[in-house]
Amino acid sequence: VQLVESGGGSVQAGGSLRISCSASMFTYSRLCMAWFRQTPGKEREVVASLDSDGGDLTWYADSVNGRFNITKDGGRKIVYLQMNNLRPDDTAVYYCAAAHVTWAQCGKAPWEYWGQGTQVTVS
User: Fold this and answer.
1) Rounded distance, CA 89 to CA 85, Å?
2) What is the C-alpha separation between 61 and 78, in angstroms, rounded?
3) Three-class SS of residue 59?
4) Neighbours of 110 (CB within 10 A)
5) Is residue 26 helix, strand or coil?
6) Contacts of 41 (CB under 8 A, 6+ apart)
7) What contacts 24+ positions apart, CB below 8 Å, involve 3-7?
C-alpha cells in the first residue's frame, strides 16, 4: 500500500503546476488525504486536505488559500493539487499523505501513509 506522487518540476513565479497523488491500492472510502510541503530546516506543513468520502469537504492553509485547489478523481483514486500564481516561497518538496479517518478526525489523527515526495521549484 503506497502513495505515488508525480508532476513536480520547475516553474517561474506567477505560473501554475499540478501535482498528483495516486492511491490506487487503497480502500478509498473514509480516507482523508492531504498535501504537505517541506523545505530544508523547516517542519513539514500541511497545505490542503480533502475528504475522499464524497462531497466537497476541503481545507487550505492560509498561505495557499485562493491559489491552490485540491481535487480528486474518485474513479482513478487520484488526488490532485493545482497550484496557481506560484511564488518562490512555495518552493518545497511536496508530500501526499493519507489516513483512514473521518473528515472530523482529519488532521487530528496521525497520518498513516506518506508518498515519497515531489520537488516543486519556483523561481
Assistant:
1) 11
2) 21
3) strand
4) 7
5) coil
6) none
7) 3/96, 3/97, 3/98, 3/113, 3/114, 3/115, 4/115, 4/116, 5/94, 5/95, 5/96, 5/115, 5/116, 5/117, 5/118, 6/118, 7/118
For residue 85, what pLDDT is reported? 98
Number of neighbours of residue 89 by Cβ within 10 angstroms: 10
Kindly give the confidence (pLDDT) of every residue in the chain, 123 residues in length, as a single tens digit, with 9 standing for 90 and above: 689 999 999 999 999 999 999 987 776 667 899 999 999 999 999 999 998 876 678 999 999 999 999 998 877 788 999 999 999 999 999 999 999 888 888 988 899 999 999 999 999
Cell numbers describing residue 121: 521549484
Q: Which amino acid is at 7?
A: G
Q: CA 97 to CA 114: how far, in whole Å?
A: 5
Residue 31 C-alpha cell reads as: 480516507
Taking the C-alpha atoms of residue 109 and residue 73, their distance in angstroms, rounded to an integer, is 24
The residue among 106, 82, 97 whose CA lies nearest residue 2 is 97
The C-alpha cell at 13 is 513565479
